[in-house]
Amino acid sequence: MKVNVHFFVNDDGTGLTAGNGASNQLEQRDVFQKADDLVYFANQYMEDISSNKQLNQIPWGADTTSAQCVGLRFLLDEVFIHRDSNMDLINIGGHNDQYVGINYRDAYNILAVDIRRASGYAPRQGRYMVVRSFDQQLIVHEFGHSLLLEHTHFGNSNGDDNCFDTPWYKWEYDRYGDGSVIDSKKTCWNVSNRDASGTDLCTPNGTTVINPHPCCDSSTVNNNVMTYSAAAQSGSIAALTPCQVDIAMTELLKEKCDLIAAIEPICKPVSAHIGYKPNTDFSQDCSWTFYLRGSTNETEHRISYQKLQPDGTYSPFLDSDWLPGRAREERVVVGDDPYIKHGTVRLPSNSTYIMTLTTRNNCDTDHYRVEFTTGACDVGDQDDSPNPGPFHTEEFQAYPNPSNGPITLEYGIASSAEIEIYVGSNATNSFELIADISGYKLAGSYHHQLDLSFLPNGAGTIVVVVDGYPFYKQFVKQ
Ligand SMILES: [Zn+2]
To answer: What is the Å distance from ligand 1's center to 74 Cα?
Structure first.
């Protein structure tokens, strides 16, 4: 299922996303990674719950069914930052129409917004959800509503979800322990069973308790994704039932077939996207960043630029060739001085370009294009050049070279960074992530012995990716 994720900033393009939202305010540069994480964790949750069974079916009069595989995953399609102060804080159902209209109809839309009095909502059978946090269960729960799933915790006809295998949880209880039964929230959603005032609901203060709080009994643990319970939030406990998945999949194939990226359990589809901040002005800015993280499942990516010629045709200008791993960021600087060092790419001023990101894995490929015209800039004249990052280029070594055995890799970083290390053969152009030495690293110097026995003899490349920026070292295996 293709999904777009939408973020909102002030009308003038400044500010954090989601206005005053407590849980989801983000710097603009961080939203691309956040969208990526949202999809990753929601997918992980759907995978995890596929081995879990609905609890407490018998005590609540439901048919007993086994664990149900959830055959659904999200694929991130595009990430948007909109200028719209009105979306800082909205009421349920408010001000969404323009973001789910014709422009975004080829993907399901997730709007990250501060909502009043709800963590999220999604209209029944709709093509969007609005969420105020990025919780994995919330995303899957709201998507469930879009696929006709109802809450399972209301024991009344309005809440009937047409499934005989989901328990209807309904209770009344003596909230204050004073002998009067109160029909309160019909769901156990509080792990500690304490209410907002701190009262332990399992041992109310009064003496003539008619019914203790139902959540005090393990038979009321509701682990269904379509409830609000604490158990439903955990991928290791939560579940959907066979009936629910049947309803959801039927609805998906009937009403949302056009949003499906691929039906393929083994080969994951790839996507490509080029994002940038809403106030980016290509004709005025002398440097900016393209965020390429809105692309998933690729094992290789390629970035190319074509330049508009005086005769109106485009000719190749720059081509990265295939690079290992996921696309991350491209820092563009504009200027005619060929010795400009910062930035991952330098583009001459007063010219028009088409930038193309192509992604692929062993069974699928996708691409995305952005066209823009640079202004009269020379970033070489400016003092406020972007920080080159924490990598110590002078410490970056690989030896012995050539080598007929392992190679020692040395590098250093001035501050903590996310490090990915790839090794590959130039002839086959396939690169392996060396997982055990990749990951989040603190500032310092690092030495690793790389086993090259999996590579053919000949020229190869070590790639150290530091917070998304690659550094290359060539070597020869003998
Ligand atoms: Zn709901």
So the answer is: 19
Centre of ligand 1 from the C-alpha of residue 123, in Å: 10
In this chain, the answer to whether the domains covering 2-163+225-259 and 287-381 adopt an identical fold is no
For residue 129, what are its two tokens?
């959800």
What are the residue ranges spanned by the domains of the chain? 2-163+225-259, 171-217, 287-381, 393-477
CA 199 to ligand 1 center in whole angstroms: 26
Pick the CATH number of 393-477 from 2.30.30, 3.40.50, 4.10.240, 2.60.40: 2.60.40
| CATH class as words, domain 2-163+225-259 | alpha beta
* Ligand 1 center from residue 108 Cα (angstroms): 17
Helical axes 136-146 vs 31-49, angle rounded to 10°:
80
Quick check: 185 pLDDT over 60?
A: no
pLDDT score at 449: 92
Read off φ and ψ for residue 475, nearest 5 degrees: -150, 170
Look at residue 387 in the predicted model and tell me its pLDDT: 46
**pLDDT per position as a tens digit, 236-294:** 999 999 999 999 999 999 999 999 998 887 888 999 999 999 999 999 888 899 999 77
Q: What is the per-residue pLDDT for 439? A: 85
* 240 CA to centre of ligand 1 in angstroms: 14
CATH architecture under which domain 287-381 falls: Sandwich (2.60)
| Cis, bond preceding 386 (omega within 30 deg of 0) | no
Residue 219 reports pLDDT greater than 60: yes
Distance CA 321, CA 14 (A): 35
Question: 3-state SS of 297-311?
Answer: CCCEEEEEEEEECCC
- Residue 141 Cα to ligand 1 midpoint, Å, equals 6
Residue 368 has what pLDDT? Answer: 95
